[in-house]
Amino acid sequence: MPASRRGSGSIVLPSGQTMAMHTRTHDEEDLPHATKKTMADHLRKYESLFTLTPQRMRMIVEAFKDTLELGLSKHKQTVPMIPTYVFGWPTGQEKGDYLSVDLGGTNLRVCLVTLEGEGKFEVTQTKYRLTEEQKQEEGQKLFDFCAECLKTFVDTNLQDENSGLKLQPGEKLPLGFTFSYPCTQERIDHGELIRWTKGFGAPNTEGHDVAAMFRASLEKFELPIELTALINDTTGTLIASNYVNPKNKIAVIFGTGCNAAYMEYVKDIPKIHDVGIGLDGQMAINCEWGAFDSFEHEHLPRTKYDQIVDETSNKPGEQAFEKLISGRYLGEILRLVLCELIDEGVLFLGQNTYKLEVPYAFDTAFLSLLESDPTDELLMAIGIFTHFFALETTLAERQFFRALAKLIGRRAARLSACGIAAIVSKMGYLEEGCSVGADGSLYNKYPGFADRVHEGLQDVFGDKGRNIVTHHAEDGSGVGSAIIAAMTKARKDAGIYVDL
Ligand code: BGC
Q1: Which residues line ligand 1 (CB under 6 A)?
Q2: Most Cβ neighbours (<10 Å): which of 128, 345, 439, 492?
């Protein structure tokens, strides 16, 4: 028998929970478990459901490219290809102190960013966890909470006698507000929320200018702060990663949600030709690609589990691409497969499965843990199933769970590669190659995610796919938002498109 690591211990999950691990010397024989062969037969079925062939990927890329073009040419498309009013790349010489508030899918972050030029910066930040209730309460209340956290941050970090930051009477600190949800922008300090994503549902916010709502909250707290730019996390990531490495031409986020941004030629954004911007410039585009194939579901390989995730979400039909990829949903997809096997009497016979039957009980972090388990006996899986779900498992079952996690994680990475490939191909970046700044929990923490994206790019493009390389990006929501605030100030000071 091969040697295995034995013993007990505990690990802390990203959610903050502690998980105990212990080794068994034999599998339970008193409970009726599925045989190795049964699990292998089931695995074959899921392999065919979740595997994406190179040919299918290339078809998806073609449809994706058409969708990107359509979004650039007409307003109100499913993939809205949002002009961000971030004109061109940073010089790398942007300097100064900037505040940023980042309302992400999981946390609220407040940062003070000091840009030092030459691609250098310093960041001081505080993070606050958002509760599920906050995501559903009145929109204005949510922005008030953001302003309140900002006030605490300013009081703690900027009013200090020793801090270098002293405001002149009447002076206001520029703030970049990173609001990572699809917003139509008419200028850089404006953004009408098209729809909430990532499980948010705060009423009286969709269809409203969220920059104006946040300004109202800032006034309530009498903060000496001016909202200079409203940005998306992908746009921030695009600019921040180009600030430190000008080879970065695309930014992607694979976290609770998923999305991409890139720099487009204004002449190739027909829908804004009447706004009065010279056609020779460039503007960053927030693709909002999570919405690809929403509503019509023509191009993506959705399984019945994906359909259940969609139908039981607070936004059925929407964010079809995101629901196959992002960290918010992968755990739930796996959980639904397990529930099906419970219903069919294959798994956990004679055991109480109620804990696993709770929607979203299976965290996407569990997939990462299952995949990265280094032990022959799959101790991590034992730990997850006993500690969180009070379920006994056999080695054959645990091997099946790990294989299933791999199928779901790999499909997510390969679909992500399709999105990147669509932008690369549309912009003609393949021959000369380009670097893609990537961020988000899935990209940063899921074992092998980046390698699978790269493998996917080669499946789409052949050997030339190697020219496209993703790497961990700079902090877009903090640093990127500060650079954009600085670029905007410099542009307006120079009298360029001052009303945009
Ligand atoms: C949002 C995007 C965001 C992405 C990553 C998506 O759900 O619609 O605006 O960039 O998540 O955070």
Answers
A1: 105, 180-182, 197-198, 232-234, 253, 255, 257-259, 288, 290, 322
A2: 439
